[in-house]
Amino acid sequence: MIRLIAILALLMSSCAPMPGRTLQKGVTNETPLAEMNLIVHKGNFVTTSIACHKATWPYKPWLSVASVFLNFGIVPACCMVSYDNTGGVKGCEIWYSGFDFQLQHELRHCMGYK
Predict the structure, then answer these.
(1) How far is the CA of 101 from the CAs of 12, 36, 47, 61, 76, in angstroms?
(2) What is the rounded distance in angstroms from the CA atom of residue 69 to the CA atom of residue 29?
(3) For the chain, how many structural domains are there in total?
């Protein structure tokens, strides 16, 4: 039973809808990926979860704590976006655990979408 719960939690943590057409607050236009400093790290669930927790802790510690209770601390993908002062994105760093749909999801965030 515990294995079934662990597998379900892992699968559910990987299910996030594709970011929509709503831009982040302060972003006025979609930023093409070619116009930003983009860094992509492909790992596994363990290395990605560790990197995502380290990256988000200084900004949103509640998110790291919540993920421990909601999905055993597993974070299958995340990105850290840096914005410029003209309403666009200047850089983005992605960590993902090897699945293309995760990368595509995070790339949408890099382009400026919620």
Answers:
(1) 14, 21, 18, 26, 11
(2) 35
(3) 1
Is residue 99 over pLDDT 60?
A: yes
Fill in the DSSP letter of residue 34: G
Q: Which residue, chain included where needed, has tokens 């790339």?
A: 107
> How far is 5 from 71, CA to CA, in rounded Å?
10
Q: What is the pLDDT of residues 40-66, one digit of tens each?
A: 999 999 999 999 999 989 988 888 888
Phi-psi map region of 85: left, alpha, beta (phi>0 left; psi -120 to 50 alpha): alpha
Number of neighbours of residue 9 by Cβ within 10 angstroms:
15
User: Which letter does DSSP use for residue 113 in this model?
Assistant: B
- Segments forming the whole domain that contains residue 90: 2-110
Cβ contacts of 98 within 8 Å, gap of 6 or more: 42, 43, 44
Report the predicted TM-score, pTM, of the whole model to 2 decimal places: 0.81
